[in-house]
Amino acid sequence: MTVLAVPPVASPGPVDDVPLPLKPARTRADRVFMGCLLAASLMVLLAIAAIAAFLAWNSKAALSYAKQSIVRSDHFAPVGVHPSFGMVGILQGTVTIAVLALIIAVPVSIALALLINEYAPRQSRRTLTSVIDLLAVLPSILYGLWGLKTLSPEIYPATKWMSEHLAFIPFFRVGPNQPLGNSIFLCGIVVGIMCIPICTSVSREVMSQAPREACEAALALGGTKWGTITDVILPFSRNGIVGGALLGLGRALGETVAVLLILSQTNVVHWQILTPGGGQIPALIAQDFTSVPHLGQSALTVAGLLLFVTILLLNVLARRVVMGRSSAAYT
Amino acid sequence: MSTLGPDLVLAPGTPRSDGARLDPEDRPRRLARRLPDAGLELGLSVVAALGITVVLFTILVGSVPPVGTFVVALIVFLVVYGVVSRLRHGPFVMKDRLAAVYVWVGGALALFPLAQIIWTVTAKGAPVVLDHFPKFLVNDSANAGPLTPVWQSGVGHAIVGTVEQVGIATLLTVPIATLSALYLSESDSPLSGFIRTMVNAMMGTPSIIAGLFVYLFWVQPRGVSGYSGFAAAIALGILMLPLMIRTAEEVIRVVPGSLREAGHALGAPNWRVSLRIVLPTVRTGVITALILGVALAVGETAPTLFTAHGSAHYNWNPFQGNQANLPLQIFANIESFSPNFVREGYGAAFVLIFMVLSLFVVARFIGSSTPGRRRVHLRRRRAKEVVVS
Predict the structure, then answer these.
(1) Is A9 helix (H, G, I), strand (E, B) or coil?
(2) Are B139 and B158 in contact (CB under 8 A)?
(3) How confident is the model at residue B23, as a pLDDT?
C-alpha cells in the first residue's frame, strides 16, 4: 500500500517497457477447441432447421390438396376417397384448452411464487423450490392418469352443478341426456396444473429480484405485506409474470398425452366445454398419425408444423418479455 | 434529506427545528407485528365457515361432496374472516389477511395434485409390484389378458426398453449438451446470442413434434420395420438437449471470473482453462443438470409413440423392431376397460414414478454439495497433516 503513497514521478523508463498486449493469444489448440464447441452448439440449430424442413416438406401434399378449406371448414376426416382436412375444430379445441389452462395456472402460480418468496418461512424456500422442479419432471402420463381416474370422479358433482345452475353461460350449456366428463374442461384443468411449474419458476425468479430497499421502504412507511406486494413486487415483476404465462401457454398448446387420455375427440368445433367432444392438435396427431393414409399424414403434419412454429415464436417472445424487464420500467 | 435525519428520532410532539410540531397521531402503523388475537380470529373463522357449510349442505343437498364443500367453505370463510378483520382492525388489515389466504390456499392447491398423484400411484401400484415382487419386474406382458392373473405378466420388457432408449439418448446428448453449454458461456460472439435464443425457443418443442419429426426422418424411410428403440432415443434426445444446455449453462455462468483470470494469468490457453478449471469447478452442478434431463426423458410418452411404438415382448435389440417402454406400457394398460390391465398400468406407473423420483433425489443430492467444496476440504486436511507431521 505504501507504494501508492509515493507521488508519481515522470520517469522516462526504458523504451521497450510497454505493457504486454492483453488480447489473449489464440493458439491453434484453442481454435480447434472453440471449433468443437461451436460444432456442438450448431447441432441445436441443425435440429430446429431439420424439424422445420421435414415438416414443411411433408405438409406440401395436403396443402396443395386442401388449399383454403383447411381454415374454412371444421370437418376433419382423413380417411376415405375424398378426405377433408378442415382444421377449425381442432384449432378451437387446442386454443380453448390452452386458455382454460392459463386461467387456472396463472393465479395459482402467482400465489405459489409469492408463497415461496414472501410468506413461507425462509428455511423452507429451497425445499419448496425443488418441489416445483419435481412437479416439472413428473411424467405427463401420470398427470393424465390422475386426471382420468382420480380427478374426473372428484369433480363430477361440481361439473353437474355447473351444468344445472350456470347453464345461462353458453359454455356450460349441456343438452338433455348428454354425458359429462372426458371434456375440454377437464383437459383444461389437468393441462393447467401441468403449466404451473414453468409459470411459477419464471415469475418467482423475477420476483426475487425486486429491489429489497423498495420493499423495506414500503414496510417502513407502514404498508402492509400485501401493500408491498401490490405496489412494489408485482409492478416490478409484471414482465416476468407475463413471460411465464407465455411459456405456460406454449406448454399448454403442445401437451399431448394427458389430453389424449382424457378427451373424447370429435375434431369439430365444440363450445360445450363440459361434455365429451372437441379436438386438440397434438392429441389428434398422436391418435391418428399411424392409422391414416399418406395424404392424411400430410394433413396432420400441416397441423404439427403450425403448432411447432407457433410455439417456437411464443418461446422467443416470452424470453424477450422476461429479459425486457428493467428497473427503468419499474421506476 | 439531511434535515429529515434528526427529526426521525424525535418523539411525537417535540418541536422540530423549524418550529412545527409532529402530529401526535402521525405515527407509523405497526402492522408487521402480529396482532394480539390473530390466531383466535383465524381459528374461529375456519370453524365457523366449516360449520356453516356442512350444515348448509346437509340441509339443502343431503350429502357433503368434497369439491363443492371446499369451494363453498372457502367462500364462507373469506366472508367471515373479512368481516371480522374489517370490523376489528380496519380495511388495510382485512385486505392483507385476505391476500394471505389467497397466497396460502393457492400454493396449497398447486401442491395438492403432486401429493395426490404420488399417493394414488403408490397406493394402487405398490401392492401390484410388491405382491408379485420379482415376477412383475421380470415378466413381459405377452400373456396378459383380461382373465389371466396379474402374476403371469409384468413390465420387464418395458423396463429394458426405457433403460436402453434413455441410455442411448443420454449417450447422444450429454457430450453435445456439455460442449454447447461451454460454448454459450465462454464465447461472446453474436452467434452465441443467436444460438442461446434458439435453445430457449427449442425448450418448448412439443414432445409430439419430436416424435413426428423422427417418424418422418428415420422411421418412414426404413419401411414397415422402421420402428426401433434407437428412433425413440433420437426423439428423446431432441427433447433433452435444450433443457440440459440451458441448465448446464446457467451453472457454468456461476464460475467466478477471477478463477478464469487466474488461469489465464498463469499462462493457460483457453481450452485448458475451460476443461481443467471451469468444468471441474461446477462438475456437480453440470451433473445435476444432466440428470434432470434424464429424469424428464424417462417419463416422456408422446415422442416414443411413433418411434418405439410399444410391444408386449422382450426386445433387447434397440436398433431393430418395436420396443416397449414404461410410459407406453402405462398408456396401453390404462385405456383398457379390464380391471386387470388397469392394475398392471398402476404397477407400471409405480415403477416409473420410483425411477423418476430416484433420479430426482440423486440429482438434488449431488447438486446440494457446493462446487469444489469436497476438494477444498481434502486439501485442507492434507495441509493439516503436513503441518502436524
Answers:
(1) coil
(2) no
(3) 57
pLDDT in tens, B9-48: 444 444 445 545 555 566 655 554 567 778 888 899 899 8
Which grid cell is B308? 418405439
Domain range summary for chain A, segments of one domain joined by +: 72-325
The DSSP secondary-structure symbol of B274 reads I
Give me chain B's average pLDDT, please. 83
For CA atoms B292, B295, B301, B306, the dihedral sign is: positive
CA A302 distance to own-chain centroid: 21
Residues of chain A with pLDDT under 50: 1-9, 326-331
Amino acid at B125: G
Say if CB B295 and CB A137 are below 8 A apart: yes
ipTM, two decimals, is 0.86
- State pTM to two decimals: 0.85
User: What is the domain partition of chain B in residue ranges?
Assistant: 34-131, 150-384
Beta-ladder partners of A276: A183
> Can you give the pLDDT at residue A200?
93
| Residue numbers in B near A131 (CB within 8 A) | 111, 114
Say if the Cβ atoms of B117 and A138 lie within 8 Å.
yes
Q: What is the DSSP string of A40-58?
A: HHHHHHHHHHHHHHHHHHH
Q: What is the pLDDT of residue A193?
A: 94
- Which of 1.10.3720.10, 3.40.50.300, 2.40.170.20, 3.40.50.720 is the CATH number of B150-384? 1.10.3720.10
Residue A106's contacts (CB-CB under 8 Å, 6 or more residues apart) are A199, A241, A245, A248
Q: Which cell numbers hold the place of A177?
A: 341426456
Instruction: Please tell me if residue A56 touches chain B, with a CB cutoff of 8 Å.
Output: no
Chain B residues inside the 8 Å CB shell of A42: 195
Check residue B373 and give its pLDDT. Answer: 54
What is the nearest CA distance from A61 to chain B, expressed in angstroms? Answer: 14
Question: A134 CB near a chain B CB, below 8 Å?
Answer: yes
Is residue B283 scored above 90 in pLDDT?
A: no
Residues B203, B207, B209, B214, CA torsion sign = positive
Contact yes or no for B71/B133 (Cβ under 8 A): no
A50 touches chain B (CB under 8 A): yes
Chain A nearest-CA residue for B291:
A137
For B315-337, write each residue's pLDDT tens digit: 888 888 888 899 999 998 888 88
Q: Domain A72-325 falls in which CATH fold? A: MetI-like fold (1.10.3720)
